[in-house]
Amino acid sequence: MKLAEWLQMTKTRRYEFARRIGVTPGMVSEYCKGRAIPQQPKVMQAIHRETDGLVTPNDFFDLSYSADAPQVGGVIP
Fold first, then answer.
1. 68 neighbors 39 (Cβ within 8 angstroms)
2. pLDDT for position 70
3. How far apart are CA 1 and CA 8, in angstroms?
4. Structure pTM?
5. Per-residue model confidence as pLDDT tens digits over 5-60
6. Among the listed residues 41, 17, 20, the one whose alpha carbon sits nearest the alpha carbon of residue 29
7. Whole-angstrom distance, CA of residue 24 vs CA of residue 16
């Protein structure tokens, strides 16, 4: 789940979430817009914790599974 979706679903204000994870409200906005990805493990862990695991590190990347993607050793690269 994208962070922006979680914030909207839970009606959590960006400034409040920013305080809870230890970043600025502007940084949360950048995360929501896809312009930034949390670089510090402690921030990523805080996001995961504060969202009860609904927002994961993978949610900051636009990775999609494709059945047509080439497989290497049985694993999709």
1. no
2. 58
3. 11
4. 0.80
5. 999 999 999 999 999 999 999 999 999 999 999 999 999 999 999 999 999 999 99
6. 17
7. 10
Asked if residue 29 lies in contact with residue 14, where contact means CB atoms within 8 angstroms, the answer is yes
- Residue carrying structure tokens 């504060």: 50
Alpha carbon distance 60, 28 (integer Å): 12
Q: What's the pLDDT band for 67 if we cut at 50, 70, 90?
A: low
Positions of E strands within 1-77:
none
Residue pair 69/77 in contact (Cβ under 8 Å)? The answer is yes
Helices 25-33 and 14-21 sit at what angle, rounded to 10 degrees? 110
The token pair that represents 67 in the structure block? 């059945």
